[in-house]
Design a protein that fits this description.
This protein is mainly alpha-helical. The protein is built from 9 helices and 2 strands, in the order E-E-H-H-H-H-H-H-H-H-H. It is globular and about 55 Å long.
């Protein structure tokens, strides 16, 4: 079932059941469409996050089962960078709170297609590139002048975000939205390849399949329910993973 927004952009009507939300998600994957604006934060939005969390956990269990099956056949799966780290409160906080907020802003905040969001992420990336280039050129020490320029660029992004607040999604972005949606999920999965210290990255592409799948779920929530919803699900997802690691560690101790 579809509803029509004021500008003519069609999007799926809100679901009223667990099965309905999942059907809405898979229909969205078949035809990713960017509505004019996300649904306001309300009780049904929180319910949608819960429903998608259930789907996310089911998918993760299936993927973990497949990984254990592969290991049972004698295939060696590379460990992640955090596998040998002690799960300290600081690390848990970074994984459950900081990482979801930072990653959702970087990979999905701009999926709204609104001018302020797109401008902010572009200028934030430019500022990051300036800092990175300066550090690489001077033995990891950022030049104060270059750092100041990067700060000005970043602040300009914040100003643009404020000035352009409330603007609807840009028409050209809505037309190209399917490309942006799939790109964000692939980029999110690709960045997690850095978790593995393996020379041939192509051989470990299947290992970031979970990140690709959760990227699709998070993108769906972002454009249909708002940025807060995908951040919340990302936090819950990471919290479940951290809990599993902690339980496994205590059991093996």
């Amino acid at each position: 079932m579809e509803a029509i927004t004021t500008s003519g952009q069609a999007h799926l009507a809100p679901a009223n059941s667990l099965r309905g939300e999942w059907s809405r998600f898979f229909a969205f994957l078949k035809r990713p469409t960017l509505p004019d604006g996300a649904a306001p934060m309300q009780q049904s939005s929180f319910i949608a996050v819960g429903r998608m969390l259930v789907l996310d956990l089911i998918i993760m269990v299936v993927l973990l089962g497949a990984a254990f099956g592969v290991m049972a056949l004698g295939v060696n799966i590379p460990k992640t960078a955090i596998s040998g780290m002690d799960m300290t409160p600081q690390l848990a906080f970074a994984a459950i709170v900081f990482a979801p907020v930072a990653e959702e802003i970087a990979f999905r905040s701009w999926l709204s297609g609104r001018p302020g969001h797109v401008l902010f992420i572009i200028l934030a990336l430019v500022a990051l590139a300036i800092v990175g280039a300066s550090g690489a050129a001077s033995a990891q020490q950022v030049n104060p002048v270059t750092g100041g320029i990067a700060l000005v660029v970043f602040l300009a992004g914040l100003v643009g975000l404020w000035v352009l607040r409330g603007r609807d999604a840009m028409g050209w972005f809505q037309k190209l939205f399917p490309l942006f949606f799939w790109f964000s999920a692939m980029a999110f999965a690709g960045i997690h390849l850095l978790n593995f210290s393996v020379e041939n990255m192509a051989t470990i592409l299947p290992l970031v399949l979970p990140q690709f799948v959760i990227g699709l779920v998070l993108g769906y929530l972002r454009v249909n329910y708002g940025l807060w919803s995908n951040i919340m699900l990302h936090m819950l997802h990471n919290a479940a993973f951290i809990t599993l690691v902690a339980v496994a560690g205590s059991a093996g101790a």
